Known about the structure:
The two termini are about 20 Å apart. This protein is mainly beta. The radius of gyration is 31 Å and the shape is globular.
Amino acid sequence: MLPYNQIRLYLFSPQDVNSLENFDNWLALLLTHEYTHTLHLDKARGASSGLRKVFGRGAGFLPLFLYPNSFQPTFMLEGLAILKESADGQSGRLNSNYYKMLIADEARYGSMDLGYASHSGSYSYLYGAFFYQFLLEQYNAEKVQQLIEAYSGKIIPYRISATSKQVFGVRMPLLWQQYQQWLVSKFGDTPELTQGELVDASADNLAFYTGLQQPPVARGALVWRQVHDGHAQPYLAAYDNNRNELKRISTERIGIFDVNALEHVVITQQRYRADNRLYSDLYLYTNNAWRQLTYKGRYTETRWWGNDKLIAKRQHNGRGELVVLDTDGRLLQTLWQAAPDQVIGRFTVSVSQGLLVAAIQQQQQGYQLYQLNLADGRWLQLTQGTGIKQQPQFSADGLRLVYTSDQDGQYNIYQLDFSETVLKQQQLTKVSSGAFNPTLAADGALWFEQYQQRTRQLLRLPGSDFAEAQLLMLAPQLVSWDRSEKPALPETILLPATPYQATGSLWPTGWQPGLSVNNDATQLMLQTFGQDALGRHQYQLLAGIDSKAESLFGQFSYQYSNTYSLYLEREIEHYSLQQQIYQSIATDRFSFYRLNAVTGWDDKLNLHAGLVSEQFRELYRDHAQLADGYPGLQATIAGVALLFNNCQQFYHNNGPSRGRRLLVSAEANGLGSDFSGNVYRLNWREYFHLGQSHVLQLKLAGSYGNEHSRTVRLGGDSASEPLLATRRYALRGYADNLALSGKHAAIASLQWNIPLADLQWNYDTFPLGVNRIYAAAFAEHGRLWRRSTATVAEEQLSGVGIELTTEFTVGYRLTLPVTLGLARGLDDTYGENRAYLNINLAVF
């Protein structure tokens, strides 16, 4: 939408049962969904359309009045896109048995009220999809179109209820009640069927929020499972046959894993790298430590092949591959490469039988199970017919294979028996809410996950309790993957490839004027921004003129990828006495950074270099009020900063949960600077997770400069922490006072972050909600050294206080933390009792 309509697609097809598995042509479904968003969000009538003719696509706050449809709850935006992706009656989430399972669970145990649905991120997709289906069934398609048209003409945003009244005759809260009643009547009468003995249940609905599922693994007498509740670090837990937890292995992130007979663990981990790209690599756990096997890979799943080799699934040149690696991550062999229209889902390996079974999706077939003979490379198709077959898992002896399928309309666990010459299929579970991620333990019991009441429960089902189901005889078929047998593709027009040119999409597409009038001066401003199609080049510009100083001012920022950063600013400040300006000072700031010049230690260690300059000069002086002029001042430094950051943030925390962030920098004054010498700075933060989202934060920071370097200050309730040229360290309980400045400074802080509530709530469709509420208690101590001609004076300053932060959601999607703090400075001279309010809103 901004700065222009653009669809950016990740062509990586879904490979598991996670609500996106119901597709025939993934690219077609993806384009349909995203193009619906483009048409919907860009649609405007009346005054909004007229304003666009003047201001283009807008900048600053103007888009608030230019794109009416974008200012709706997420469930109304995503629901419409899901409705369109499902229009063929077969593909898409509305036709998915997984989505029907989720909404039936909501109807059975109590659906969300309008406030939660307006706020909730992931559940907005689910509730939005069936909301539009409700509108189609209870009203009609014409009413849905009227809803879109009516809201497209609302120049005043967030008028959800008024539009509902206009189109449906009832305001949105009453319409939502009708929707809830419809859900109960359509899905709520499904009987609850459960099986198995509970091992544990996820503490919350993280599996739904993240879309990530980690199947349990049976190895020897143990069954392993990854646990992640969003409050603490994920870990692998090993259970015995009596469901007792015996072992734990911490993992940095969640991912699909496997365990061999030596209890060595291999796991996939997704991570954004310093080049701003998302990769998925393999990590090996041996000798009580994790070791990275691959770097900047696209590995999504791996299985042990004995104790010294791995079979992994990866994306390579846009196609799925099955490859063999050694335990150092070296590629030994490519077993098979999928065709462009094939998707490799989950797979399993039997070492004893020399077989690999994978769920493979092809157009007009859905996910079916295929068997690869690892000795001769031949494929057999094991299953056919309707329904998705996914998540296969061999038993230890390789004679049985369990998997999940929705072939009867509900996801249940099935088994294939290879022990005889005829392949037999048997249904093992009969649950109403869905059974997933099966594995067979050494004692013959089935371990699986059941979705119920927004949680994934790990269950153990003894073999004696398997569902009584008729055995079906299957006839596997040899597969040649002969592409000539595929139906002819529609006529395709191939365009010649051309090198990417960023300049064609860099020009700004909109602007916003601004006016500031006060007793000192009148300022006229213009604001715009832009980026190229790939988002590598991004810039923002604010330019203005000051009537009193008769001078230009403004800001310009530019960033290229995660590599270069440029910032220019001119700020004009007026000083007055009895409403008469006697002086105007211009501050010119310049910074240029080479970011991530050197990276290492799994991209946790990064070296940055930069040049920072600040110049002060007089623009205006009333000689009658101020005889002496301002001599001006320039401070220019060049420096390097080494940053180590291995912090982790758990889902329910408001900031870093554990780890270390250490910044060390060295700066040299020069290039016309009025200061000289070097300055060395340290900023060290350590985070200790105390459990249930409680975090203890330790901070040590400071700077050391020589006699002719620029001073640094202590004080203020908050302060920015740039890579270079830190001018002030916050010390709560003390004002930002020039008296508290010196050549050397240090500060130590101990803070306890305390979660109070996780509400995730809106009031109906009012565009203001609350995410989380948390508190903090802190104690700080600062030291300041002032240098005179022959002596060094030292100040020691301490403070204590508390903070209460409410994390608001503005406009359904913008997170706005608001912190109210009370701090007491304990120094008799400079200390104060201070109350402060910090609003962390990023504005240009």
